[in-house]
Amino acid sequence: MLHTEGYVTHKSENGIATIEFFHPSSNSLPSTILELLANTIKEVGSNEHVKVIVLRSGGEKAFCAGASFDELMSINNEEEGKKFFSGFAHVINAMRKCPKLIIGRIQGKAVGGGVGLTAATDYAIAVEGASVKLSELAVGIGPFVVGPVVERKVGVSCFAQLAIDATEWRSSDWAHRNGLYAEVHKTMEDTDAAINKLAAKLAASSPDAMAQLKKIFWRGTNDWDTLLPERAAISGALVLSDFTRNAINKFKKQ
């Protein structure tokens, strides 16, 4: 579905569904786009003709720069804050519960919620240079919502590295070595070729077997429907602080 400041689209061919999201601000996503993305994943995931999903973003630069800072600065109370930070929670939970395997196409850098989306894919294939960063602590919040999915993928130690040293980028090689990326390729042509090859293989595989595998991969996450909104409430309260307001204003002026 198109939106005046961004879009979410999907198309299907030969059992392969491609979902694409985009926002002109480095793919930093407002709540409207996040809601569309969560609903699209649910819709496509329930389509019996779809065997596998490729999740990608539009543009040639950032894969996803996280949540919209402009919308974040408009938050006036804790309830609005919880609702705002629940946007990525809804998308992650939609990906988690989707019965289809999701391949992530990571064509550029990922920040904050973008790292969460990457971690929520079942198999992420990235291009060299697709660095990652959890920048939340630097603006007085913390990666509370994406924390469970990032920790699940890379482990507590690596999650702590990302969360604590919040201003430093980790390279695509770091992300590959620590399990966030399943594959890293030198060019986008090589990256897309690898994605197409894997998607075609999975489209020819048993849907029931893949659905059962996905359940095993996500074992132990049944409480996330309540856990992630609880984490969103933490961020929703912290975002109202003077520290966060001042930090974001400084960041936007850079």
The total beta strand count reads 9
Assign the structural class, choosing from mainly alpha, mainly beta, alpha/beta, alpha+beta, or little secondary structure: alpha/beta
Share of helix, binned: 40-55%
Strand content: 15-25%
Description:
By secondary structure, the protein is of the alpha/beta class. It is 49% helix and 16% strand. The protein is built from 11 helices and 9 strands. The longest helix has 20 residues. The radius of gyration is 17 Å and the shape is globular. The chain starts with a strand and ends with a helix. The mean pLDDT is 94.
List keywords for this structure.
254 residues, alpha/beta, 2-enoyl-CoA Hydratase, Chain A, domain 1, 7-stranded mixed β-sheet, 49% helix, 16% strand
Topology of this protein?
Elements: E1 2-3, E2 6-13, E3 16-22, H1 31-45, E4 52-57, H2 69-72, H3 78-97, E5 101-106, E6 110-111, H4 113-120, E7 123-127, E8 132-133, H5 147-154, H6 156-164, H7 172-177, E9 183-185, H8 188-203, H9 207-217, H10 224-238, H11 242-253
Parallel strand pairs: 3-4, 4-5, 5-7, 6-8, 7-9
Antiparallel strand pairs: 1-2, 2-3
Helix pairs in contact: 1-3, 3-4, 3-10, 4-5, 5-6
Task: Write a short abstract of this structure.
The chain has helices at residues 31-45, 69-72, 78-97, 113-120, 147-154, 156-164, 172-177, 188-203, 207-217, 224-238, 242-253, and strands at residues 2-3, 6-13, 16-22, 52-57, 101-106, 110-111, 123-127, 132-133, 183-185. It has 254 residues and is an alpha/beta fold.
